[in-house]
Amino acid sequence: MIISESLASFGKYCIFMGRVFSIPDRWKTFFSRTFFEISKLGVDSIPLVIVISLFIGAVITIQMEINTVSPLIPAYSTGLATREIILLEFSNSILCLILAGKVGSNIASEIGTMRVTEQIDALDIMGVNSANFLVLPKVIGFLFYMPILVVFCIFTSFLGGFFIAIFTDIIPLSRFVYGLQTMFQEWYVWYGLIKSLFFSFIITSVAAFYGYFVHGGALEVGKASTNAVVASSILILLLDVVLTKLLLQ
Question: Other CB atoms closer than 10 Å to residue 179's CB: what's the count?
Fold first, then answer.
């Protein structure tokens, strides 16, 4: 029963994505809405990303230094481990799980509200492809801006570690910086950026799907928003395993 319902939902999602990725009727309107979504979904997420990254970078640095006291462990291991954790997982997977709560719930509730107030029905009656008109700018806008959020996350996470090294005596700054530079692999940065693109698509498309097919009233909009965040989080974690296997083997 669960498998059949999942397959039916997946088929419905694929058909919905087919409607979303059709050619826009008016390119000028599409570009203006895309820039608006970049501002709303991407730029407005920068403060959240900065605050979370600063504290996470600081906490990772403290935890690594406290738990690597063995003389057999190189002195630079704190900076190196902090860098690898941030580049490989936090700046893409964990960040997107957090953004799924902010961006995903925003999209699902917005589109769901439009559905229950019959605004989407009005667009369909006027002959407008409502799925393309409402969803495609969100998908493209967030997809375009996601790498910038990842770069912000990486930079501010390292900055959090720098603050710990500068303002406390937990770890010397020179040793932390040396660890950040030791055995650096450029591919890890690209690996995080590639994963974030897949995750951003999941966040926007899944949230839009749940919001678009809401039926009922305000209570159902709230449920759709919750279901969108849960489904996006699960799919991000599943895809994280697959992409890690493909990109780091």
Answer: 24
